[in-house]
Design goal:
alpha/beta; Trypsin Inhibitor V, Chain A; 239 residues; 26% helix
Length: 239
């Protein structure tokens, strides 16, 4: 009787061992073989939406690269590998390429902007500073953009396109030849120069033997120099 019980126990243990290793073997075979699933269409979806779709089919998602695309919104999937509808084993990665947005951008209107501000606006629009030319004009303050090329109305352009700028140097100042003021009466000369718009702002007086008071004995700039109305004119007058 005891021997029968031992025999039955041994049989049960052997069956349990066979069942355990058999199940492990079948599980391993199933894992290695993998379930066959259909790859979903991920085009136009965000990575979050795509991960949800592939996880339902026991697949994974790998973002492989980004590319410019004029039609698909930035951050959405342009294409995938394997393509939609393919039959593949589970646990396989689906590689996708995301849109970096359109390669074409709007050109900002830079008219009457300062050069510094214009460069900032170009950078914010993914454009670059091109050639810069300057001209004198009374229509725009110095340092402001007069014109640009390409212009906003010409349509969108590719990113990093250089934009050429024409900058105002302000109104051109006339230049004059400094006259000889030595020996002339200071009050008359100063009045005439100031009436003409010249900047006479430094008048000193000093003793000069043999001259009556109020006669110009020194001037700066000297006779013959080119001056503009904004330049400072200094005089030394006898007392």
């Amino acid at each position: 009787m005891l021997s029968d019980n031992i025999f039955n126990l041994i049989v049960i243990l052997l069956l349990a061992i066979i069942l355990f290793f058999g199940s492990a073997f079948l599980t391993t075979r199933l894992i290695l073989k993998g379930e066959i699933v259909t790859v979903p269409d991920l085009r136009g979806k965000t990575p979050e939406e795509a991960r949800f779709e592939v996880s339902r089919r026991l697949l994974s998602l790998v973002v492989q690269a980004t590319e410019y695309h004029d039609e698909i919104e930035k951050g959405r999937i342009i294409r995938q590998d394997p393509p939609a509808g393919s039959r593949v084993k589970s646990n396989r990665p689906v590689r996708v390429v995301l849109s970096a947005g359109s390669e074409l951008v709007e050109v900002p209107d830079l008219t009457n902007k300062s050069l510094e501000n214009a460069i900032q606006l170009l950078a914010a629009s993914s454009l670059t500073k091109g050639l810069i030319a300057q001209i004198y004009t009374s229509e725009f303050p110095a340092g402001r953009v007069i014109a640009q090329r390409p212009r906003p109305e010409e349509g969108r352009v590719k990113r990093l396109t250089p934009v050429n700028l024409l900058i105002s140097q302000g109104e051109r100042e006339e230049k004059y030849v400094m006259p000889d003021l030595i020996g002339k009466k200071a009050d008359v000369v100063v009045a005439q120069l100031r009436n003409l718009g010249f900047n006479v702002a430094n008048i000193r007086s000093s003793y000069y033997p043999g001259l009556s008071s109020g006669i110009i004995i020194k001037q700066n700039p000297p006779h013959g120099y080119c001056v503009q109305k904004r330049n400072l004119i200094s005089l030394e007058v006898s007392r």
